[in-house]
Amino acid sequence: MVHGGGHVMFTRKEVNLRQVRLLLDRGFLPISIEYRFCPEVNIRDGPMTDVCDAIRWAREELPHLPILGAQRQGLRIDPERVVVVGWSTGGHLAMTTAFMSRLRGIKPPEAILAFYCPTDYESEWWQKPIYPEAAVHGPMDPYDLLEGVQERPIASYYPATNKNVPSMLMSLDDPRWRFVLHMNWRAQTLPLLLNGLPAKSQASSSSPESNYYNLPQPSREQIASISPYSQILRGNYRTPTCLIHGTADDLIPWQHSQKVVDALRERGVDSHIEVLPDVEHLFDTFSNKCFTEIDRCYDWLAEQLKKA
């Protein structure tokens, strides 16, 4: 299980507990993982690598660990039946295991389930400003971008501005929410993810801090290397995949998910999609809406393992 957070924040505790129960009811052993965040490390060397390492661990090490009560409960770990579930940017990371694991000599997962996640980073969508509805500040408000960059990569961070708040507010008062707002407002998602940002102590004395606010876009090859849709078109993505996406998502177009499923079907890869009318990003985080569709996705996931 891979949590979201724009590739820059949150913790492995931020997974949907109702959906953990759905996994348990179907015989899965849910494991929520940590991964290093951007921008202290780029997305390929950090998050994408770490999620692949989690698959390797699940296949090679987990079956040999002494799990309390496993024998009494009849628990058996099958290393040949591994799936990855992710939410938002965690869903993107889940999908990258379909092609990244092959490059690292790791068997890809048997199936992937991803909620409202980025799938096509070559789309023009990422080259223009996005204005999140959850932002409590505006793009003209000043902010210190590099303040939140740590000296070393971190893998756990919960913004103080969101504690005891039953919603996902994006505030410039938190130094890592600034990364998320900055990526959206200034179309800097790809430069930040692929090339990272330096800590203040590491920033070049010959380059003003203001230069980091509008970095050039990465090359097309760099972008394609992290984009699931691009890898499907290149024949590198062959893992059965289920996507679920609302049409009122203001951060990631649902049409991208539909395009991915269409491309997989054209190539004979098992796939399924649930398109949810008038449903927003993170729809399952603070409510029980669309439970029937979510339940159907977990049924699909379980069916894929019967074929494995």
UniProtKB/TrEMBL annotation:
One Gene Ontology term of the molecular function aspect: serine-type peptidase activity
Which residues are in the Alpha/beta hydrolase fold-3 domain? 2-121
Could you list this entry's UniProt keywords, alphabetically sorted: Hydrolase
Q: Which domain of life is it from?
A: Eukaryota
Q: Does the keyword Thylakoid apply?
A: no
Q: Which residues form the Peptidase S9 prolyl oligopeptidase catalytic domain?
A: 211-307
Gene Ontology biological-process annotations: proteolysis
Gene3D superfamilies hit by this protein: alpha/beta hydrolase (3.40.50.1820)
Protein known as: Alpha/beta hydrolase fold-3
From which source organism is this entry?
Answer: Macrophomina phaseolina (strain MS6)
